[in-house]
UniProtKB/TrEMBL annotation:
Protein name (database record): Cytochrome c4
Lineage: Bacteria, Pseudomonadati, Pseudomonadota, Alphaproteobacteria, Rhodobacterales
A single MF term (Gene Ontology): heme binding
Residue intervals of the Cytochrome c domain: 72-156, 163-254
InterPro entries: Cyt_c-like_dom, Cyt_c-like_dom_sf, Cytochrome_c_Oxidase_Subunit
Gene3D superfamilies, sorted: Cytochrome c-like domain
Record keywords, A-Z: Electron transport, Heme, Iron, Metal-binding, Transport
Organism: Profundibacter amoris
Length: 260
């Protein structure tokens, strides 16, 4: 079993401590924008404590939203990706270079759009770095989000992170576990972990620690932006060992998808 997931006690904490964030940010101190985020995050602590109530998301898949998504301009998205410094943390073309931050390359446009809206509207403020992303995207318009979502969606999924055989995880992906009413992951996330329309995220080749953290956040209820609690219910039933194995399994799936 891989060890990279196991030193993640913070995955059970509702939000980042300033020291976690500071050590991440050391890499980025050359950037004025990112340094100001670091300062801002210290002032943010009391606000973070207030969980937003109300619906899990403000995104509804209406004709207007779908038309907005269709109007996404990848060239303008590329410009925003550079201008807003997304590239600093999410890597060139959205392929993250470390195991903890998510890749965005090849992500379905609908999911990227939805999660950016959710960050901006503080629907993910209970997660470890949700308020960091909320601050980063605070000034982005819906059109900006549609443009940048179409930019990442035009690339292939990231390459596989780790080579690992995870039989229990593969069974959960392909068959689920009817005895515990767990549907196969592939029903929603695609038979290759490539995601599907409108808001099912791609998992293949994703950063393993991020996958682990997301599932633990759903399980603990820190992340509640999933419509109809679809992921909260599933993650709540999975054991921590299964979650770790699933994180390794999907992180190892990338190349097969990317080569097609
Ligand atoms: C300082 C580093 C940093 C910068 C700059 C940054 N991000 Fe992020 N981003 C993160 C982290 C960390 C997460 C994971 C948050 C979590 O664990 O809840 C994240 C999450 C995301 C996600 C959700 C991924 C998923 O699969 O759920 C999207 C989409 C995203 N960022 C887009 C952007 C865009 C667009 C920009 C530029 C406008 C940007 N990010 C700038 C660090 C950064
Ligand atoms: C009924 C449909 C459904 C099934 C089955 C399902 N998921 Fe999900 N999952 C979702 C949705 C929808 C989201 C996005 C939630 C949101 O809006 O942020 C999600 C999000 C996730 C995320 C967070 C990804 C990210 O980029 O932030 C992970 C990890 C995940 N699912 C893993 C799994 C695994 C592993 C299984 C199988 C054990 C599974 N899911 C089964 C619907 C499903």
């Amino acid at each position: 079993m891989a060890t990279h997931c196991c030193n993640l006690p913070f995955s059970m904490r509702p939000r980042q401590s300033h020291s976690d964030l500071e050590s991440d940010m050391k890499y980025f101190q050359r950037s004025a924008i990112l340094t100001s985020i670091l300062l801002f995050s210290a002032a943010l602590a009391p606000a973070v404590a207030e969980q937003s109530s109300g619906p899990s998301t403000n995104v509804a898949w209406t004709i207007e939203t779908l038309n907005l998504l269709r109007s996404g301009d990848p060239e303008r998205g590329a410009m925003l990706n550079t201008k807003l410094e997304c590239v600093t943390c999410h890597g060139d073309n959205g392929v993250s270079t470390n195991d903890t931050w998510p890749s965005l390359s090849g992500q379905t446009a609908g999911y990227t759009f939805k999660v950016l809206r959710d960050y901006r509207e503080h629907k993910l403020s209970g997660t470890q770095r949700g308020e960091l992303m909320a601050y980063i995207v605070a000034e982005m318009s819906d059109q900006d989000m549609a443009d940048i979502a179409s930019y990442y969606a035009q690339y292939t999924l990231p390459p596989a992170r780790i080579a690992s055989v995870q039989e229990a995880a593969e069974t959960l992906d392909l068959l689920g576990d009817p005895t515990r009413l767990i549907p196969p992951c592939s029903v929603c996330h695609g038979n290759k972990g490539q995601g599907s329309f409108p808001d099912f995220p791609a998992l293949a080749g994703q950063s393993p620690e991020f996958l682990m953290r997301s599932m633990m956040d759903f399980k603990a209820g820190f992340r509640g932006n999933d419509v109809y609690s679809r992921m909260r219910l599933i993650a709540g039933t999975l054991t921590e060992e299964e979650i770790e194995s699933l994180a390794d399994y999907f992180a190892g799936k990338g190349i097969a998808v990317a080569q097609e």
